[in-house]
Amino acid sequence: MKALLVYPTFPPTFWSFAYALPFVRKKAALPPLGLLTVAAMLPAEWPKRLVDLNVEELREEDLAWADLVFIGAMSVQRRSTEEVIERCHRAGKRVVCGGPLFTVEPESFPQADHLVLGEAEATLPPFLEDLARGVARRVYPPPEGFPSLEATPVPAWELIDPRRYATLSIQFSRGCPFSCEFCNVTALFGHRPRQKSAAQILAELDELVRRGWRGQVFFVDDNLIGNRASLRSSLLPALIAWRRGKKGLPFNTEVSIDLADDPELMELLVRAGFNTVFVGIETPADESLRECRKTQNRRDLLASVKRMQRAGLQVQGGFIVGFDSDPLSIFQRQIDFIQRSGIVTAMVGLLQAPPGTKLFERLKRENRLIGRLSGDNTDGSTNILPRMGLETLLEGYRAILRQIYSPRGYYRRVLTFLREYRDAGIDTPLDWQRFLAFFRSLLRLGVLGRERLHYWRLLVWTMLRRPRLLTLAMTLAVQGYHFRKVCEPLLRPAAVRDPRR
Fold first, then answer.
1. Is residue 15 scored above 60 in pLDDT?
2. In this predicted structure, what is the pLDDT of residue 373?
3. Would you state the pLDDT for residue 208?
4. Bridge partners, residue 348, by sequence
5. Whole-angstrom Cα distance, residue 388 to residue 385?
6. Which residues are 97's β-sheet partners?
7. Which of 67, 111, 124 is nearest to 93 (CA)?
8. Least packed by Cβ within 10 Å: which of 165, 182, 226, 371?
9. What is the C-alpha separation between 474 and 451, in angstroms, rounded?
10. How many helices (H) and strands (E) are present in the chain, helices listed first?
C-alpha cells in the first residue's frame, strides 16, 4: 500500500520558535520523530511519503497518490488535525490516527477510520496484520504493560529534508520514576523507564551524520536520567567514545532537578555532548511542591540550578502557577526566582489537569474541571477552577510574563546566566545561515527593536567578558524576541477569557 504520513500544523507556541526561525531560515523547530519512527515500522515494500505541514503544503497529488493516510498529533495540533482528516475524507482516503492526542481522548475523534493508540511498538503490528487480512478494527487500544524499545527501528530520515529544521531529535527512553500529580507521562509511558541500547542510539546518530547533520540534537526523553545506572554504564560512555574526532552535534534533553546532586553524572553528560537541560522546577513554594507530590524538588532549587550551570549545562525551566497551595505572593516569588536563577528560557504556564493524571481525577471528584485542554500550556488557558479565583490567577500570570519577558528583565537574565555558565566548548558549527542570522539580529533587534539598548549592552559585554559565548548570547537574544512575540497576545486586556463562557 502507498502510505502517506501527515504531521499537522503547530500554532505559534513557546516551543515552536516560530518568530525566531526566520533568523536562521528554518521552517520548523523539530521534525515529526513519532511519524518517522512509524514509517520505519511499516512494511519495507510499501512506498511512503511524509508531509510535515509545518514545512510544506499537503498537495492534492499527495492525496491522490496515497492508499492510506497516517496522522500523528499532539493536543496542540487539534485544529489542524481535524482539518486534515476532513480533507482526507473528501479525497476518499482512509485515515489511521495515533499519538498522544488520540490516545488521551479517542472519543473526540469519531471521524477517524482507525485509531492505533498508545505506543506503536505494541499496537501497530496487530493493526497491520489485520489490515493485510482485510479485517482491520477501528480501535486498537494500548495493551496492559508497556513494550520494549529494543526492536524500535532507526527513524526513516530519508522521508524529510533535515535542512528545513532547526534541531533534529532522537529518543533513548520512555517513562519516569516520579509521580507528579499533574503530569501524564507515567500514565502514557509508565514509571519504569524503558530504554534503547547504546548501539541503537549510535546507529541513529550515525544516520544523522551520514545525512550531513552537525546541528543540535534533542533527546526527547521526558527524563533522561530516569535510569541512572544504565545511563552511566552504557549510553554515556558510548556517546563519549562516539564523539571523538567529531565537531558539532550538541545535545539537549530533559532531566529532573536531582541531577544536581550527582557531580559525576553531570560531568559525564557534558563530556558526552550535552550542553542544555530542561528541568521541571514548577514553583519555589514548598507547600505547592508537597501538594503536587513533586518530592524531588523540595530542596534549595536555586543552588541546584547554579550547580548545573557551573557544570556546563544551560538550564531551561518549566514553571506553574495555580496550585491550591499557592499563596498570593507566588507571582512575585516566581519572578524573583526566575531572575535570580539565570534561567533564560523560562516556560511559565497555568496549572492544567490532563486526562489520565491524578490531578484530573481529583478535580473531577471536586467538580472543578472546566473546558478542554488546548494542549498549549503557555496560552493563558486552563481547564481547572483555581482556589485563588480565576481572575486573580490570570492577573498574576500576566504580571509574571510582563516582567520576565520585558527586554529589561530578559536581558538581565541572560547576563546572569552568562556570568555563571561554564562553557564546555560544545557548539553548533557556524554555517552560512547562522553567520547571516547574526547580521539579521543586528538589524531587527539592534536597530529596529525596542530592546536595542539591551541588545547592544549584551553584545558588547559578551565580546569583552565572554567572547567564546557570543554565538550563544546572540541565539538567546533571538529567542527572546520569539518569547516576547508569543507573550504579546496574552498581555492584551481581553486576551484571556474565562473558559466557563
1. yes
2. 86
3. 97
4. 319
5. 9
6. 71, 115
7. 67
8. 371
9. 13
10. 19, 14
Query: Which distant-in-sequence residues (6+ apart) come within 8 Å of 378 by Cβ?
Result: 13, 14, 347, 348, 349, 486
Length of the chain: 501
Spatial CB neighbours of 282, under 8 Å, sequence gap ≥ 6: 288, 289, 292, 294, 297, 318, 319, 320
Does 289 or 491 have the greater pLDDT score? Answer: 289
CA separation for the pair 471, 108 (Å, rounded): 45
pTM of the complete model: 0.95
Mean pLDDT of 153-162: 98
Q: Which of 137, 122, 124, 138 is nearest to 189 (CA)?
A: 122
Mean pLDDT across 378-390 = 94
Beta strands in 312-353 (DSSP E): 314-321, 346-350
Instruction: Cell numbers for 410, please give them.
Output: 530578559
Query: Average pLDDT over the chain, rounded to whole?
Result: 95
**Cβ-based neighbour number of residue 470 at 10 Å:** 14
Q: Tell me if 219 sits within 8 A of 172, measured CB to CB.
A: yes
pLDDT for 263 beyond 60: yes
Q: Is the pLDDT of residue 497 over 80?
A: no
What are residue 210's phi and psi, to 5 degrees? -60, -30
Give the C-alpha distances (Å, rounded to integers) separating 429 from 247, 374, 441: 7, 37, 18
Predicted confidence (pLDDT) at residue 153 exceeds the cutoff of 60: yes
Please give the backbone phi and psi of residue 172, each rounded to the nearest 5 degrees, phi first: -100, -40
Find all residues with CB under 8 Å of 342, minimum gap 6, and list them.
305, 306, 309, 315, 413, 414, 416, 417, 419, 420, 421
Domain 3-23+31-140 has CATH 3.40.50.280: yes
In the chain, the amino acid numbered 277 is: V
DSSP state at residue 115: E
Q: Mean of the pLDDT values across residues 448-462?
A: 97
pLDDT in tens, 246-255: 888 999 999 9
pLDDT band per the 50, 70, 90 thresholds, residue 258: very high
- Cβ atoms 273, 426 nearer than 8 A: yes
What does 207-259 look like in DSSP terms, one character per residue? HHHHTT--S-EEE--S-GGGSHHHIIIIIHHHHHHHHTT-----EEEEE-GGG
Which candidate, 130, 170, 129, 165, places its Cα nearest to that of 149?
A: 170
Dihedral (CA of 62, 66, 72, 78) sign: positive
The ranges assigned to domains in the chain are: 3-23+31-140, 167-418
* Phi then psi dihedrals of residue 461, to 5 deg: -60, -45
Separation CA 237–CA 244 (nearest Å): 11
pLDDT of residue 5: 98
- Tell me the C-alpha distance between 37 and 155, whole Å: 4
Residues 82 and 6: their CA atoms lie apart, in Å, by: 12
- CATH number for the segment(s) 167-418: 3.20.20.70
